[in-house]
Write a structure and sequence with these properties.
By secondary structure, the protein is α/β, with parallel strands linked by helices. It has 11 helices and 8 strands. Helix 9 links the parallel strand 7 and strand 8. Bound molecules: SN-glycerol-3-phosphate. SN-glycerol-3-phosphate (G3P) binds next to helix 7.
C-alpha cells in the first residue's frame, strides 16, 4: 500500500518524508489556498518545491472544467515536472480529458469520486489513479469503506490497472480498513500516518525496558 500525504504544507510533507514511508503527495485547490498559495507562478513553483522534497507522484489539480481548458492546463502541469500527476474532476469533460491524457502518455488522478459507476468510468478512460472520497461519504452517513470494497471488486473483475487512491482519509482506522480492503494507495493528513505509530502498550513496555536497562550500566 502506498502512503501519500494530503497537504500542500511543506513542513508536513518534509516530516512525512523524513519518516521514510512517504510515496507521494496529493493537493487540491482548497489545500493550496489553506497555505496561502495564490497566483499561477506561485502555484507552479509550489508544486516544484513539493517535487523537490518527495521522490514519488505529486497530484496537481486542474481548475478548468471544459475539455480544451483541462487539456491545456493539464498538459502544462505535466510538463512542469516528471512527478506531476494531473488531477481531473469526475465530470463529463473530465472523463474526456482523462482519455486524451491517457492517449498522450500523461498520468492522471480522477478526483471527486463518490460512486462505483464513476470509478468504472475513470478506469475505462484509463486514469492512473481514482480517488474515492471516503471521509466525505462518512460525513453524510454513507459508508465510504463500502465504496472502496465495490471499486476493488469491479477493478479486479476486469483487471483494470487504475490504482484505487483512498482519499479524504480522516484517521488511522480509515488507513487500516482501506489496507484490509486492498486499496492501492491512501492519502491523508500527517496525523493519519503518525497515528499508526501509537499504542499505549508500546509506551509502557519501552518505559519498563528502559527502567530495567539502568542496571546494565
Ligand atoms: O485531496 C482530496 C481529499 O483527500 C480531500 O479530503 O478531508 O477535504 O474531505 P477532505
Amino acid at each position: 500500500m502506498k502512503f501519500f500525504i494530503d497537504t500542500a504544507n511543506l513542513d508536513q510533507i518534509r516530516e512525512a518524508q523524513d519518516l521514510g514511508v512517504l510515496d507521494g503527495v496529493t493537493t487540491n485547490p482548497s489545500l493550496m489556498a489553506k497555505e496561502g498559495i495564490s497566483g499561477k507562478e506561485n502555484i507552479l513553483q509550489h508544486y516544484l518545491d513539493i517535487c523537490e522534497i518527495v521522490d514519488g507522484d505529486v497530484s496537481a489539480e486542474v481548475v478548468a472544467t471544459d475539455f480544451e481548458g483541462i487539456v491545456k492546463e493539464g498538459t502544462e502541469l505535466a510538463k512542469l515536472h516528471k512527478q506531476i500527476i494531473v488531477k481531473v474532476p469526475m465530470i463529463k469533460e473530465g472523463v474526456k480529458a482523462i482519455k486524451y491524457f491517457t492517449d498522450h502518455g500523461i498520468k492522471t488522478n480522477c478526483t471527486l469520486v463518490f460512486s462505483a459507476g464513476q470509478a468504472l468510468l475513470a478506469a475505462k478512460a484509463g486514469a492512473t489513479y481514482v480517488s474515492p472520497f471516503l471521509g466525505r461519504l462518512d460525513d453524510i452517513s454513507t459508508d465510504g469503506l463500502n465504496l472502496i470494497e465495490e471499486i476493488r471488486l469491479i477493478y479486479d473483475n476486469y483487471g483494470f490497472e487504475t490504482e484505487i487512491l483512498a482519499a479524504s482519509i480522516r484517521h488511522t482506522m480509515h488507513v487500516i480498513n482501506c489496507a484490509k480492503l486492498g486499496a492501492d494507495v491512501m492519502t491523508g493528513p500527517l496525523s493519519s500516518i503518525d497515528g499508526l505509530l501509537k499504542h499505549p502498550l508500546t509506551d509502557s513496555g519501552l518505559a519498563k525496558f528502559l527502567e530495567d536497562a539502568k542496571s546494565f550500566i
